[in-house]
Structure formats: structure tokens, C-alpha cells
Amino acid sequence: MTGRNERLLQSLGLKLTEEQRAVVLDPRLRPGVVIAGAGSGKTTVMAARMALLAMDERLGPERILGLTFTRKAAAELQSRVARYLASARRDGLLAAESGEVTVSTYHSFAQNFVRDYGVWAGVDPALRIETDFALLPLLFSVVTRTRALADADPSLTAAGVVAKVRKLDAALAEHAVATSRLRSHEAIRVAALGDEASLTADLAKVVAAARERAALATVVDEFRAAKAQSGVMDFSDMMRLMHQTALGSDEPVRRIRERFGAVLLDEYQDTSVVQRTVLQRLFGEGHPVLAVGDPKQAIYGFRGAAQGNIEAFPQHFPRADGVPADVYTLRSNFRSGPTIVAIANGSAAAQAAASIAVQPPMETGADRQDAVTVRVFGSQPEEAAFVIQTVKDELAEGRDPEQILVLARANREVGEYATGLEAAGIAAASSVDAGLFDVPVVGDVLAMLTAATDPSANDQLTRLLVGPRWRIGVRDLALLGARARELVRIPQEPAAPDSGAADWRATLRQATAGSDPVDAASLRDALDDPGEAPYSVAARSRFAALSGELGDLARQAGDSVVDLVARCIWLSGLDVESRLTPTAERDCAAVDALLDVAGQHHAAEPESGVQGFLRAVRLARQAERQPDFRAPELTGCVRVMTVHKAKGLEADVVLVPGMHAGGFDETTLQQHWTASGEALPDDLRGDITTAELIAPTSNKARSALRAEAKERLSAEQDRLVYVALTRARERLVVSAHIWHPSVKRPRRPSAHLLRVGGADGVDWLPGHDVADGTPNPLMGAPATAAFPQWQPEHTAWLAECAQLVRDYAGAAAELAPDADDGDSGLVAGWDEDLAALLREREARDSDVTVVSVPDIIGTTDLQRLLADPDGYAVARRRPMPRRPSRAGAIGTRFHDWVAQRWGQLPLLDDPEAAAGPHLDAAGEAELRALQEAFESSEYAHRTPVAIEYPFATTIAGQPTSGRIDAVYRTPEGWEVVDWKTNRATVADELQLAVYRLAWAHLNGIPPEEVTAAFFYVRRGDRVVPTPLPDEAGLGAMLAVSTSGRAGHGESA
């Protein structure tokens, strides 16, 4: 095998270091862990190891499993391994008919494991996974009905309880703790602390948190029962049920080991306790499992990751003979220059890791020059100006914008720096984790819905009024507010003439005025009846238009929430505007995501209507459980993101501003179990070693527990800094500031910044020291802001469009003959009459009815137009409803199931299809047969790069939209696949031709690198039609189809 492996490495052109070769070429099939330092070629090593294991005659490709955390990483790893295996097949080192390895995300693997093997442990495999947002109404109903919180803090709101239940549920699942065990622990803890009357205030907090935790655990049980009854689960359930399935029966373990003879685990330092426990159960006892990761890059503890997993891997996964697993190290950093590597080795995280024998310092493997700059500025504005100027200088020297990375500690700072760069004329792509409802276009739609259905929603109506569409100024807004107050003003009753004092009824009415919502001032009422105030002409016109739109929406409030959202988008023009703005990709994706979320809510709560949807939106915001939304990645821009987001990335130039003690050294505990009921105690956590139940009986003991938690938090902050430093290849810029406009006290440079500044070869200007008690010079300056404030890029393109209209109008006026107002109206009337007469004559003289092709045509309609223009014209002119098809319903359900299989729900084209079509018993049986057939196919074991991929592009001059079933990466490029669930094996090749060109257009890929195939699921047949028409061919067909033919009844 060794000689063949060497030939494979040569054919791939891989030049591995001795450390890398030790991992890749090890012939032994036994457990091991690779400690892979930053920039050490981890992905290359993993892919090469998987390829060689696939070539091992004891295994084969089909028995190799790779797990990682993101779909993007899974697709990259799958692509590399596929390329390596293709090379091996060409060189005769692997059988041509051999299959492919399986690469999946940890979450997708868990979902499939529960679905496939849950029945062995009494788990319903038919449970469907739902998003947090979709389950919010269910959780809210549980919270409002529960009796478990009768003795809870009365100040705790329903939204607060929702947030606490979510956090506790997730923590219990991540640490594999049963709610009954938690309640037992808390009862013992409260008893051990003794008489509450004698407790100090700090210890009383421990008791209160313990009791609240036990009560919340009961609500968790009720929520889990409600989900099970509804046939749904969330991510926490998936982790819990995976654990239950793995530990509940030996049969799933036997089957999964038989299926996968060797396993590779990527980013193992980010796995949780429950993931580690399940992996131990499935792949322990000496099974060949190789974990790869870096303890110094364990930065996701706040998400449940257990940093100690990778350090304890040799003991958790011993060999069959009980000896701890093998440990490999990759120390050579091929990314960064020598100065940056030395600084990373000197960081606090590296120093702490040096105490562990398996984590030696990195060595420089890259032959490049580098530079490190450290600055401390007097104020945050000075630091921001420095960052922007540094970026400008790099761009002026020809640096690729995508090779500049600005890293911040928090999302707020990411937004500030992205905005600053944009204002300076530098294109910036930020990765702020804004919830879907915080995206501006989505906020506008929700504001419109709320203002239409809730007359008291003054804040949402104000957002619309001062926004870029209606542009109401401060004066007109103040007059409208005065009118709102005038409409609810209650006249004062005069005092009784013989009382000598105010009548008690008048006094009472005055005291309670405004307490009834009916008596509250409503801008909506004023909008409908603005009165005779001296508004500007433009404002009065806009008030009337907005009032009309909101009235139309209010009258349709009984429609489905999807229809109402779509109508808001249409009325506001966002369907067009979102495609024209500089942030078009993000805005279009956000609008689509909002429609998808509305569809999910309608499917789950069809009777709740728009008010129920808006209530769920408010709850999601309050509980910080907004739907996930990831904006499309922009290209050609400077990247601005948090350090957490940057993990796994690299760039030539990396800037890390804001490295002050309050940021990267912060160890404030947000929630600790000694004071917060939603936090899991240390004695129940699987990542903290403690043998006894913890009941602090003194303030000192409680303080010691909190100090330990702060030490763990500080260690994670150290690792976060290490990740930031090791993203840089050639230039690293670290900075901080002393004064910020929002703080009274000076900010001190972080200890990490001082450590970097003191390293050899660093350009270091420490700035000046400021004594405690010195007043902040920035706080004296008055804060100024423009109102209303719109995005500069928004108003810029609006002004550009307006100027184009003015230019056109001016040109038309110059060409028009002179005429007075009366003549102009008369001439316009003549023009309209003449045009109508000409249309009437043409229609009478011709037996051809011209049917226009829509501006954007769907793929199915485009197929019909190309294949049968006359039939398409008839159907378009006289559309008839189609009878629901049983086969179509089965196909829809199958497509949804495939999308859910990889954890991706399709966006909604048809709002009514949100809940999925209903099938009878025979239909359900047919669907199950299709699912089983798919599971045995080659596509079930390959990870797609896209599922249910929506597109809108222009092909052969015709705007076209549609949805591609699946796209896979192949050694030669890409493969577009269309699932066929019908019994016939006949399909229109034009569909694949359109899909192939759409994928190539939208991804900037030559069409020659994209193949296309039909997969007939029932028979397991993959059909690749060749040759497919190219864009020129489709254009020629389209020209013929749309030209019209005399003598026929209809023409497109």
C-alpha cells in the first residue's frame, strides 16, 4: 500500500512535510488525534487521508465518513477528496466503478441518524425539524398555560420566560442532562443551603436561582411534550434524541460501524459534550476515528462547545487494547510570516497550551516577509480614521480588497467600521449577525403590516413616515402629532356651580385621561384625518397616499399572512427596489426569507392570522430568537466581521481595532448559575470535572465559583485573540483607543495588545497615559445627527434615478411644439383616441391575437414556450385552473423531504404550499418507497452544494426564474440534477439546458464546466442528455417561438 500511496501523492502533486506524511500515510487503522496549528494545511491533510483510506482495500470509498460543522466546509472537503479519487482512478490506483466518500455536517449526520435509527430507541423517526421562530407560538402557548411558574419572580415577562426556557433546554441537551436529574439536584442544593431566613443576600440568590431552574425544567418538559404531540422537534431535541438513540440500543451502533469503517472529525475542538458522548458510543472501542483540531482555537464555549474534548481525546477514544489514542502534531504554519508566527507563539493562549505536551509552538513554514503595527490612539474617532486610511493605502498600492480583513470584537463595532469604510468610498462587506427582522427592507414591510393592523403602533408608522419612501419632514411630522393629540383630547367638565371645588367626576376623568388605549393619541387616526393644519403640499399628498395603502391592507387583514406580506412588498415597491439598490443581493435574499418565514408560520398556525404573526415577530425580538439570516457573500469588497466569524479565514492584511481591556479582556459573567435560573450548574456540566454536588455555604465559596467561571471566560478570550492574530499572512495591524464618546472613564489597552507591542520587530507607538479621574474630552461635544437619516447609498441612487427622469422629461419638452395648457390636453386626447382606433383596426383585420411574454418567465413556462408557442399563447391568454395531481403532490412532498434531509427548507414559490400537500395512505406509501429508493442511490451519499436553489437570471435575452433541485461538485466541475418522481422516463431536456446555464451565469462559471442530469428516483437511473442546447441555441429557438405566425389563432 505504501508504494501506491506514494504514487498517489505524486500524481496529486502534494508535497507534504514529514509531520503531514505521518498522518496521511499511517497504515494503521486505529484512533488518533491531530493537533493542527493555524495555517498548517489541515484541510489538505484531511482530504489526502480520506483519499488514501478510500483506496485501502480493507475499506473503500463508500465506508469513509467525514464530519465538519458547516455546509461550506463539507462541500470543500468533499470536492477535494473527489478530485483526489478521480486522479487515482485515472492512474489506475482505484477501481473505476468505485463510489465516493461521505462528507456531512455534524448536524445533518445527527438528523439522519435519528431518522434512520431512532425507532430502535423508541424515537419517532417521522419528527420533522422546525426553526426556533416557527416554534415560538407553541412555546408561548406553553408558557402562558403552565402552572410551574406560579411562584416565580412577578417581574418576569412571558418573553423573558421564553428566552430562559430556550437557553435551559439547549444547555440540558448539550450536556445530556435529564430534567428529572436537574430537579433532584436543585432540591438537594436548596436543602443543603439551610434556612433561607439566615442566608446572606448572595446565598439567597443561589436558592432563588435553584428554585427557578427547577420550575423552568418543568416548563421544558411541557414544551418537549407539546412538540412531540405536534410531530416536530428543534435542534436541542435533535441532540437529545441522538443521544437517546445512540445509548438506547446496540443495534444502531453495530449498523453505523458496519457502514463506516473509518471516520474523520474536523474542528473537533468545537464539539459539545453530547456530540462527544455520542461519537464515543458510535466510534469508540478502538474504531478507526481521526479527530483534527486546535485547542488554541476553541472559541465557541458560549454555544456549548467543550474545549476539553480535544485535549482528552486520547483518553476518550483509546485503542482496542486500552492504550490512549495516537497523537499527531502539525506545527508548520504556511500562512503567516515569521514575525506574526512569533507573536502568536507568545500569545496568552499559546503560552497556556504549552503546558500540554501535545501542543508545541508553531514553526514558520511560509517564505514571506511580514510586518506588524501596534497603535494606541487618544480617541475612537482617531482610531477609526487610522483604520480607514490604512485600508485606503493598501488599496492604492494594488491590494485586492478581498485580501483585507477588519476584525472586531462585537457586531456593533462591525457595523460602525463597515459604515465608515462605505462613507469613505470603500466597498465593504460586513458579516453582522443581524436577525432577519433587523434587515431594513424587512423592517419596512413589518412596519407597514403593523401600522395597517394596529392603530396604536405610532413607532412603526413614524418609521414609514420619515423613511426614504415618504420622506416627511420634522415640521409636518410635528403637525401630524399635534393633530393626533387633538383627535383624542377630552373636554374638561366645569366644576359644579354650588360645590366651590372641582367636580369629582371631572377630576377623575382628567386623572385617568390617556390610560385607556382607545384614548391614546394615534398617528394613524391623524393620517386618515389630518385636519386643516398648514402642512406642506407634498406632505398632505403623501399622507393621503399612505392612508389609502394602509386602509387597503387593513381591509384584507383576514387573508393569509403570506398574501399580506407579498402585498406589502408590492405596494411599497420593494419587489423592484430591492433589485436595484447597492445592497440588492442582501435585500432580495431578505425579502425571500421573510416570505419563507411567513409561510412557515402560516403552516404551523393557520388560524392566527397577521396579528399572530406580528406577535411572534415581537416575541422573537424580545427573546432574541429571530430567524437565522445569512446575507449572500459579496465579492470585490473589504471584509469586516467579528473574530468568531473569521475563524477559518485568512487574508494578506488583517486589522484588529478596539483591542482595549473592556473588549478582549472582558470577563463579566452574563449569566452564572449562582444567580440565573437558565444557566446549568457546574456539577451538571459534562465539561467541568466535579464529583460532588455544589452548594456554596458562604459568600466566599460563591465568589470562588464565580472566579473560576471568569478564569474559563478569560481563557476563551485569550484563544479569541490567538484566532485574530493568526488570520494574517503579510501584515497585522492591532490598535486601541483611550476615549470613546459613550464612556466616562478612559479605556486601557488590552494586555494582549501590550504583549504584541512588546514583541521583537513590531512597529509600536504606545500613545500617552491618562490618569484616573480625567474627564472625557469627547463628552463635552454635543452629539449631532441628521433627521430623517437614510442610507447614503439609498438616497444616492434615488437621486440618480430622479435625474434620469428629469433629463428625459426635459428632452421630451424640447421636442414638443409650443402649445397652451388647453391645446396640450386636447392633443393628448386626440393621441389616445387615435391609438385606440389603430388597435381596434389591427385586431379586426388580423386573425392573430398577440400574447405578450411576461417580463420574467418561469422555467416551466419557458420550456412550453420553446416547445409549443401556440399552446403557451392559448394557456396564457385564457388560463384555466389545473386539477390537483396526486403525482404532483407526491413529487412536492419528495422534494421537501430531500431539502429537509440536508437541513435546508426551500423558499416558498406558492404560499398555499407552505404546509405541503396532503396525501392519502397509498400516496404516503408511494412517498416512502421513493425515499427508500433515494437512500440507496449514489446521491444520498454525496453532499450537495445547493438544494432547492432559487434563481433569477437572463438567458438569451429573456429574464428567467426557477428553482434547481440540487447541485453537486464533481472532479470536473459541477453537476446540476433534477429529481424525477414520475413513473415515465421521459423529460424535457430544455429544462436542464436552462438550469445549466442559470447555474453557470450566477456563479461566474464557464458553461462547459457544468453538466446536467435527470435522476429517475423510482428506478435509480441517472440520465445525462447530450448535447444540451447552449445559450445561442436557446436564443435562436426563443426568437422563432416569439416571432408569431400569421393564420393561427394565438401567437406568443
Count the E strands: 25
User: Remind me, CATH topology of the largest domain?
Assistant: Rossmann fold
Percent of residues in beta strands: 5-15%
CATH homology superfamily of the largest domain: P-loop containing nucleotide triphosphate hydrolases
Instruction: Tell me the span between the first and last alpha carbons.
Output: 65 Å
In CATH, the architecture of the largest domain is 3-Layer(aba) Sandwich
Per DSSP, the total helix count is 40
Which outline best applies?
globular
**Alpha-carbon Rg, integer:** 33 Å
Low-pLDDT segments: 490-497, 877-884, 904-916, 1044-1052
Domains, number: 5
Looking at this protein, list some descriptive labels.
1052 residues, alpha/beta, Rossmann fold, 5 domains, seven-stranded parallel beta sheet, six-stranded parallel beta sheet, 40 helices, 25 strands, 49% helix, globular, disordered C terminus
What is this entry, summarized?
49% of the residues lie in helices and 12% in strands.
Structural summary, described in words:
The chain has about 1050 residues and is α/β, with parallel strands linked by helices. About 50% of the residues lie in helices and about 10% in strands. Helix 3 (about 40-55) crosses helix 4, helix 8 (about 180-195) runs antiparallel to helix 9 (about 200-230) and helix 19 crosses helix 25. The strands form 6 sheets. Strands 13-14-12-15-16-11-17 form a 7-stranded parallel β-sheet, with helices on both faces. The chain has a 6-stranded parallel β-sheet with strand order 3-2-6-7-1-8. It has 5 domains: about 1-120 and about 240-330, 3-Layer(aba) Sandwich (Rossmann fold); about 130-235, no CATH class; about 370-430 and about 635-765, Rossmann fold, CATH 3.40.50.300; about 435-470 and about 540-625, PCRA, domain 4 (Orthogonal Bundle), CATH 1.10.486.10; about 855-1040, Lambda Exonuclease, Chain A, CATH 3.90.320.
